[in-house]
Write a structure and sequence with these properties.
By secondary structure, the chain is mainly α. It is built from 7 helices and 3 strands, in the order H-H-H-H-H-E-H-E-H-E. The chain folds into 2 domains: about 80 residues, no CATH class; about 80 residues, no CATH class.
Length: about 180
C-alpha cells in the first residue's frame, strides 16, 4: 500500500512539473490532491487504478463511483454524467474493479459503436496491475440458445465471476426487413 501511494505521489510530482508552464492544467492538477472522498484501505483497487492510469481520481469521480456501488436501499440509481468526467477511463473501471470480488458477476453493457473502445479501455485499466480478465459477450435479440450454448455461457459466467473478471456485454442492434415474394 505504501509503495503504491509513493508511486502515486511521484506521478503527481511529474505531472506538476510537466504542467508548470500551462496555467489551466497546473491549476487543475493543484486542486486535485488525490484521495479525496475515499480511503485507499477501503478501495485498494482504486489506488492501483490510479497508479496504472497515471492519474488521480477526482473527488466527484469517487463520489459518483461510491453512489453507483451503494445506491439507496431498495432503490435503483440513474445518473447522467457530463462529457469529460472520465466515465469510461475511470468511473466504470473503478466500479467494476470494486464489484468484481469473486462473489459478483460484473457486467458492463455497451452499445456496439463504443464496444471496441470500451473493451480496450477495460483491458488496459483492469488487466495490468489489477490482473482482471475482461470477458466479451455480444448480445442480440436474434440470439437463440440451445442447451449446449446455455451451458457454455453458464461456464463462462461462472469463471468470470469466480476469477474476479468483468463481462463486457455488447448490445448488437438487429434490423429486420420484410421481404416481398
Amino acid at each position: 500500500m505504501r509503495y503504491a501511494k509513493a508511486l502515486r505521489a511521484s506521478q503527481r510530482a511529474e505531472r506538476l512539473i510537466r504542467t508548470s508552464t500551462k496555467p489551466i492544467e497546473l491549476t487543475s492538477e493543484l486542486v486535485n490532491i488525490g484521495g479525496q472522498n475515499w480511503d485507499p484501505m477501503s478501495f485498494p483497487e482504486w489506488l492501483l487504478l490510479e497508479v496504472e492510469s497515471g492519474l488521480l481520481m477526482r473527488e466527484m469521480q469517487a463520489s459518483i463511483a461510491k453512489h453507483m456501488l451503494a445506491p439507496k436501499p431498495g432503490r435503483n440509481s440513474v445518473m447522467q454524467l457530463n462529457m469529460g468526467e472520465r466515465k469510461s477511463t475511470f468511473i466504470v473501471p473503478a466500479v467494476a474493479a470494486a464489484l468484481a470480488n469473486g462473489q459478483n458477476l460484473v457486467r458492463v453493457f455497451v452499445a456496439r459503436p463504443q464496444s471496441k473502445q470500451m473493451f480496450q479501455m477495460l483491458v488496459s485499466k483492469l488487466g495490468g496491475l489489477l490482473g482482471r480478465r475482461i470477458y466479451h459477450m455480444p448480445i442480440s435479440r436474434s440470439l437463440r440458445l440451445g442447451v449446449p450454448e446455455a451451458e457454455s455461457f453458464w461456464a463462462m459466467y461462472t469463471e468470470c465471476m469466480e476469477s474476479g473478471g468483468v463481462l463486457a456485454a455488447v448490445k448488437i442492434h438487429c434490423i429486420a426487413t420484410k421481404t416481398q415474394d
